[in-house]
Design brief:
This protein is α/β, with parallel strands linked by helices. It has eight helices and ten strands. β9 (199-203), α7 and β10 (235-240) form a beta-alpha-beta unit. The longest helix has 22 residues, at 9-30. The two termini are 20 Å apart.
Length: 264
């Protein structure tokens, strides 16, 4: 695991977008196989998605040979609901880029058999070749996707019950009412994310500082599912100055020094 620390969320978002574009373009030069990309929702990735859209429109990047899988979706929320993750992804990214619609995969929270839906989703990821890169965010309590604290680090795609804290945080998208947030969701598992060739996590703002401290300086633990990336060979957390505010000074200096050395 390493940290990329930028001054603010805008700079961090740009770094992530250009990193993803570089990975897509690099694979295109080496192989005809599609690039398999994991994607997240929420306000955190919006800056990254905006820059990816700009690059596509200006001919710097193409999603024609990219396959995407989103990390989660609410259970029971209509697909056309403005806060479904289907709606979010098309509104925020897919409607503005050249990705073939058949290459887009999002969990169906209205499937008649949710267990089967999760198993087939996991199988589809494997059949696509596994993730080249997974872009994610992190919750204030250190969870990735909807893998709440104490989710098994060996977990795969499944249906889970959301904690009250998560519903309260997400209530800002539902008129401020936590009870309007669906109580259940489908999510890729911790191990699904960790099995990616590369993982890029976005973490901006002081509310994420405790999660970053626990994930980076604490033990690998199901209490902070982000901490699983300590054991990953190619995991990056893209932070701003506010989100690293609780790290030890020497930890901060270490990651800054590593990045400066790699840029020489």
């Amino acid at each position: 695991m390493k940290l990329i620390i930028r001054n603010n969320p805008s700079e961090g978002s740009l770094w992530a977008a250009h990193h993803i574009a570089d990975r897509i373009n690099s694979k295109k030069k080496l192989s005809p196989e599609p690039f398999v990309l994991g994607l997240c929702t929420g306000s955190t990735p919006l800056g990254t998605y905006a820059e990816l859209i700009r690059m596509v429109k200006e001919g710097e990047l193409s999603f024609k040979n990219v396959i995407t899988f989103n990390m989660d979706e609410y259970v029971g929320l209509p697909v056309n609901h403005p806060e479904s993750y289907h709606s979010f992804m098309y509104r925020s990214l897919f409607d503005h880029i050249d990705i073939p619609r058949e290459n887009i995969h999002i969990l169906d929270g209205n499937a008649p058999d949710l267990e089967k839906e999760c198993a087939e989703y996991e199988d589809a990821i494997v059949k696509a070749g596994g993730f080249d890169l997974f872009l994610g965010g992190v919750g204030e309590d250190g969870h990735i996707a909807f893998n709440e604290p104490f989710s098994p680090l060996t977990s795969r795609t499944r249906c889970i019950t959301l904690t009250r804290d998560t519903r309260e945080v997400n209530s800002r998208f539902f008129g401020g009412d936590p009870d309007a947030v669906p109580a259940k969701a489908l999510t890729v598992g911790v191990a699904t994310v960790a099995s990616s060739d590369e993982v890029v996590i976005l973490a901006f703002g002081s509310k994420k500082a405790r999660a970053i401290k626990d994930a980076v300086e604490g033990p690998v633990s199901h209490a902070c599912t982000l901490s699983c990336l300590q054991n990953h060979n190619d995991a990056v957390i893209v932070c701003d100055e506010a989100s690293v505010g609780e790290l030890k000074v020497n930890s901060y200096r270490y990651f800054k020094a590593i990045e400066e050395a790699e840029m020489r």
